[in-house]
Amino acid sequence: MDHLKNIAHVSKGKATKFPLYITCIRNQPDTDFHSHEFVELVLIQNGSASHRLTSGETPLQRGDIFVIPRGKYHGYLNGSQLDLINILYIPEMLPMAQLDAAALRSFDAFYKGVPHGSEIYPSMHLPEEDFQILEKAALELYEENSQRHSGYQFNMMGLFMNLLCRLARLYTNQPDIEKNVDELGNVIAYIHSNFRRKITLEQLCRTANMSRSSLMRSFTRTVGAAPLQYQLQLRISEAIQLLLITRKSLGAIAFEVGFSDSNYFGRQFKKITGCSPLQYRKNAWKSDQ
What we know:
CATH topology of the largest domain: Jelly Rolls
Oligomer: single chain
CATH architecture of the largest domain: Sandwich
Mean pLDDT: 82
Low-confidence stretches: 1-16, 115-119
Radius of gyration: 20 Å
Number of strands: 7
CATH superfamily of the largest domain: Regulatory protein AraC
Distance between the termini: 22 Å
Helix content: 40-55%
C-alpha cells in the first residue's frame, strides 16, 4: 500500500488503486537527487536540461527516453522549457499477461527498469519519426488516464502493453546496442557481488572472456560508465542508503562500502552527488521532518 500512496501523491489527488499513472509536466523545474517507490518511464518532449545520475550528468533533448528504477536516484539541472511525459507504475501489481514478451530481449529494461538482472538505467534517443509514434501512444494513454471513462483500466493496460512492446523493439534494434549482453551481464553480476572489494580489469576480462579494449568499449557503451567507475557508483549508492536509514558514522559507512580512506570517500561522494556525505544526511533528515 505504501507504493500506492506514492503514486497517489504524485497524481495530485487523483488517487486510484490501479498501480499505473501518467502525467504530462510542462517546464519541469530543477530537482535535487530523489528516488521513488515505483518505476518511472520518461519521454522528453521539448526543451533541454541535464539529467543527474550517480554516474554524472547527461544532456536531455526531445526524443530522449529513459527509465528510472525504483529506489534509484536522479534529478534535473539547468532546465530550459523542459516538457516531459512521466509514466509511473509498479510492475508486480499490474494485471498484465506478458505472453511472449520475454522473447523481446530488452522487455525487462523498460518494464522493470532492470535489464538482465543488472542495475543499468535503460535509455535511448529516437529519431523524430519513431519518437512521434511513441509520443502519440503515450498521450493517448494520458488521455485515458485523465478522462477515466468506464473501462479505462482495461484500455490503459492495452495501451501500456502496446507502448512497452514498441519501446522494447526499438531498443533491441538500435545499431549501437551491444550484442554481447550475456558476457557483460556476467561482468555486471561480478561487480555487484564484489563491489566492496578491490576489483581489477584483469579479473573482469577473465569473467567476460574479452580483451581489455573490447571490455572497456562494450561496457562503457552499454552501461554509460567504465567498469571501475560503475563499481564506484555502486559504492556511493550503497553509502546513500546507509546515510538515510542508519545513524552510522561517516567513517563506518565508508569502510562498509569498500573505502579504506574516509577522506577519499568524502571527495568521491561529493563529486558524484554534489554535496558531502554529512550535508546529504542533514538535508535528507531535514526533509523527512
